[in-house]
Design a protein that fits this description.
alpha+beta; Alpha-Beta Plaits; 4 strands; ABM domain-containing protein
């Protein structure tokens, strides 16, 4: 079974990015401690400084969904969502091993 990689691209109101960064800093350690969370990092768009992505790895879709149903998510997500300037783009992917022989 492969891990689930979750990417969430968020466009913030430019004057609210500091508010988002505070929310992220205050919650990132707690998110990393959630059962099934293997990895969490924050990326900033190279050209659009008010656009950020979270990149996380989860043991399974069930672990990700358990986090999304958690009290922590119920606090973090509404506070973050209030700062958006555009709809969020969120998707889950699985890593592909492309090293197999094509013959």
């Amino acid at each position: 079974m492969s891990i689930v990689i979750r990417i969430v691209r968020m466009t913030f109101q430019p004057d609210r990015t500091a508010d988002f960064l505070k929310i992220f800093r205050d919650s990132e350690a707690l998110i990393r401690q959630m059962p099934g969370c293997q990895h969490l990092e924050l990326w900033q768009d190279a050209d659009l400084p008010h656009v950020y992505c979270t990149h996380s790895h989860w043991d399974s879709a069930e672990a990700l969904n358990a986090y999304r149903r958690s009290e922590l998510f119920g606090q973090v997500w509404p506070a973050t969502k209030a700062l958006f300037a555009a709809p969020v783009l969120a998707f889950s992917v699985n890593q592909v091993d492309a090293s197999f022989n094509l013959r």
